[in-house]
Amino acid sequence: MRIDLSFKRLATLLFALFIQVTLAQEVKITGHIFDKAGLPIPGANVVLKGTKVVTQTGFDGEFTINAKEGQTLIISYVGMKTLEIGASKSMKITLQDASNELEAVVVVGYGTQSKKNLTDNIARVTAKDIQQVPVANVQNALVGKLAGVQITQTNGKVDGGINIRVRGAASISAGTQPLYVLDGIPLITDDESSNGAPTNPLLTLSTNEIESIDVLKDASSAAIYGARGANGVVIITTKKGKEGKGTFSINLSQGVSEPTHKRKWLNSKQYVELLQEAGRNAQDLESVEEELEFLSQGTDWRNGQINTDWQDIAFQTGYTTDADFSLSGGDQKTRYFISGAYNNTVGIIDSNDLERLTSRVNLSHKVFDNFTVGMNLSFSRSLINRVQDDNSFSSPLQSVAQSPISPARLEDGSANPNTEYSNYLLAKDNTFWKTIVRRLTGKVFAEYKFLPSLKFNSDFSYDLLSQTEDYWQGKNAPFMATDGAVFASSVNTENYISSNYFTFDKTFAEKHSFNAVIGMEYNNYHRRYQDVNSIYFPNDDFNTIDGGAEVNEGHGSETDYVFVSQFGRLNYAFDNKYLFKASIRRDGSSRFGKNNRFGYFPALSAGWIISNESFLKDNSVLTYLKVKGSWGKLGNAEIGNFASRQLYRPNPYNLKSGLTFDQAGNDNLTWEKSTQIDFGFEAGFLDRITLEVDYYQKDTDGLLFEAPLPISSGAASVNKNIGQIRSNGFEFTLNTKNFDNEKFKWNTSFNLTTNQSKIRSLPNNNADVIAVGSYTINRVGEYISSFFLVEYAGVNSENGDALFFKNTLNPDGTLNKDLTSDYSQARRVIVGNPFPTLMSGMTNTIIYKGFDFTFTFQGEWGASIYNTAGIYQSTAADYYDNQTADQLNRWQNPGDITNVPQARFQKQNGTQESTRYLDKSDFVRLRNLTLGYTLPKQAIKDTGMSSLRLYFTAVNLLTFTNYKGFDPEARRDDGGIGEDFYSAPPARTMALGVNINF
Fold it and tell me: Which end of the chain is more exposed for a tag (fewer CB within 10 A), N or C?
């Protein structure tokens, strides 16, 4: 009995003890999750394996979960490797970066998303891809790094405009540039230049403040921006502070620049020989030699006393100075990022330079556990000394048209006023064009979490672009007849944006993941412009408006528009395999006609992660495979603020005021509509290779055109939505980890894009659209703005006549390819495309011990470029302009085989507009190269620095092309599509720098 009793008591005691231990183990497990740099990770998922118990880390990386010690926790966060670890009290967990590009997080409209679960097509670059590239504008740092995105600076001026085309052209007459969004602020991108050449309004941004740039390329990603997303959306995200020890970084660099290419021109001896020969052949040698006497200004032109290299005078050695700093850090409640940058760029073109100061402060503060507020504020000031547009006779590069026998300056050092054309040195000495651009962008925001899965964001943003221009011309300036003149302008453009939206993000039963956004946005734009002109100055010491005796002209205007929008988006994922997304935006704008004030822009997309299926889940070769597709409708609202309105304009006469009918109204006018589809797949191999392939198609309908009206209507035309175009092509992106170990890493990123942008319908029964004075045509079935020229056929070897193909129509509809020397008998035909049909980029990054080496090659093929200046500079002395060196190969004797006709002064022997001056602009360029060395930590341990890196970097180091002009990317900046007209090449820049971190 005692034994039995004792046994029962013992059993009871053991059972009670077991219960106590079990209950004691069911405690709240707490922990902190950090990245490898020791910074906390907010929003990481913590799952108790085998259960539905799940939680997320807070702002400071801390989590709490009900679990027993020893049970397995699954820790996951996008961009990091998933970790399984046993639970214990007071855990401190470090996550490692994922080895797969597919784990990256991209920024989408009003949120973020893992690229792995993305059904959209978004291209991304991060800070490390664009920092320390010695260019004055952010866009140039992106060249060659994004599939489907073509980025071209108009020419080599430091203030040159930037053209960006996302997946080809989506319009003919409306805007073609993407929408830029900076930290949720749609940026003002108006070109406010008054001198005929565009400026780049995004010069105000500095690369040191940018964390990432995401380009939304397809309709599924861009539809959340509705009527402004048809040309793509560029989302720029600035850097934020992180919790932990404060960091301080300094970057300093100094570089030198030169033109990527200079052309060869005739020297004095060659020029004189050519002009005399041309005069003899035209039986006009006497007048030619009289002009040579004038051009030489009393010097011995027959023996080459003067041999002026005008090209050498127009170009100069450029310099770049960059200095920037950043300070960031924070604690559990407050995070901060503060930065400043200085850039001074002396351009490769004489008298062209830029000086810029930028600053930024980003702050966020956690008021309560579920309530966060913050602000982003930036300011920049850019001072640009500009030169005239390419079609101005006083532009530096037009000086290459001057005769080499003309002195550039007289003996007293003053500019020679007696040159063939206006001597640009007169403009250099007696004029300035100074532009100052100030930009202020700011956002205050608040985020309130009702539940861990439901939050509300309210943002108020402001963008101010303020610009002044001062153009002074002294009494000795070219074409001056009023003892001096001053032009001064001022423009202030403001954009107010209010955004309010809810976000719901939750996973049910571990398989059903929902992410939903719903909200509204109000956008108010206002612009005020004024200018004034003053003349008759007492002397050149007065160069402001009040120094003139007469204020003879002034202008002023105000304009605004409003957007009111509602938007929603739903992402759903089932079992991490089946992905669905739907979005819609409703945009209303004052720009549209009153009968079409509002529009709806829906989008749908879906994806299937096949590699998560059981038959592929454990495959060690094909580690990731996803197919995806999307469809959506977008708009292009860049049609002008009052294109739909019936307008009158003031028209004073004889000091009496009055109004004149100016524009016919169209109450049905609306945005251009773009329907886009995208199909593709993403694959990963061996955790080292990722491949992304996409086919896209953009159909734009309702193109904006001026349709003719009967004369009796009182207006010549009215704006209407007529016409269709289609852009389509393929995109390939391949990322590889060639080597990946602690000592040696080598990664390669390669992208390839094809594009065709063709016209499907036009107004007036599909009639050809040819602008007056243009070399291009818009015709159904052809590329947008195709070159339309007489076809040059070379030289008659018997008599030196220039020949052309007739290209008249035969009775059977074919072209008559007979030759003629009579230009009037030749018919214009479509002969080229101004836009590339194939683009590519390749970036390699190599890291060995402390060394890092990165370089990017970029190439374009399929485009043509028309040298509009060719009819003056490559004409075998038809004019007095200096000639390109290829004119030495002119026809001189019967039997000569050449492409340059006989020199005949002012006889138009082949100098007419034709394909003689049309050339392919195919090229491959070593766009960026950087070589750096980071000193070992042991070497700097006593300096207080955490790292010290020295680097050499270069831009446009090598160019491979057959284009005969200055550069295959340079285009005239005063208008014209695909034309080169004394257009400066880009700069080749090499710089040395140092990056210091504390």
Answer: N
